[in-house]
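re: that complex we talked abt at group meeting.

here r the seqs, copy pasted straight from the sheet so there may be weird spacing, ignore it
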Amino acid sequence: YKKITTKSLVEMKANGEKISMLTAYDFTMAKIVDTAGVDVILVGDSASNVMAGHETTLPITLDQMIYHASSVIRAVDRALVVVDLPFGSYQSDPKEALRSSIRIMKESGGHAVKLEGGREIKESIKKILNAGIPVMGHLGLTPQSIYKFGTYSVRAKEDAEAEKLVEDAILLEKLGCFAIVLEKIPAHLAEKVARSISIPVIGIGAGGGVDGQVLVIHDMLGMNNEFSPRFLRRYLNLYEQMTGAISKYVSDVKGKDFPNDKEQY
Ligand code: KIV
Ligand code: NA
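got the structure back, here u go
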């Protein structure tokens, strides 16, 4: 695929090709992620945590999401760029959800929006899709509802919640969503959902039986040592490498080793 579209992703599922997705929130990182061949870049509201240092995803604003997304869009040639609708920008009513989505599409140039929830936001999803804006769903652990859940632990372990989740996934497909993220649910349930619908299911902490995987880029690069859920595979320890490099710089400056004769005019 020269350029990834929502159609390419549905084709990938049909052909059994797994979909790779990572977050990015800024130009430099998005350029690296896109060049490396990631299919989907998510401008996640996890920016609230990893970029701004908030405890939850709730504080990030629509303006801030648009700033992150426009920076990412300027870097990307190939990947599909999906932008999270932040908490408070779509829950009040379908018109607000559409207005927020239009702002994201116009002001950032993003290719699609993602919203957390199922039947509760059915009318909003319809309205956004009617305007020609592609929608990605997000079920399971939906961090914007953290104060309802109380913890970030695995969702849908009980039958009632699992049943509701399967029904919601089927509803999202029926409404016209092009893909769904499933976060932190039992692998067997995620696999069941992936088999029940023909749009791609992209998992995070949802096992290998789904159609693709997503991780937060800062987590998979090992930029923070504190967050270690079971589902996270660290591909680098950038935290150590970066603090090593930076403390070397500090000692070079202090020791008058930097700059040397060749590093000046
Ligand atoms: O905001 C985010 O990073 C996400 C992914 C974890 C799916 O929604
Ligand atoms: Na998110």
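couple things i noticed - The mean pLDDT is 98. DSSP finds eleven helices and eight strands in the chain.
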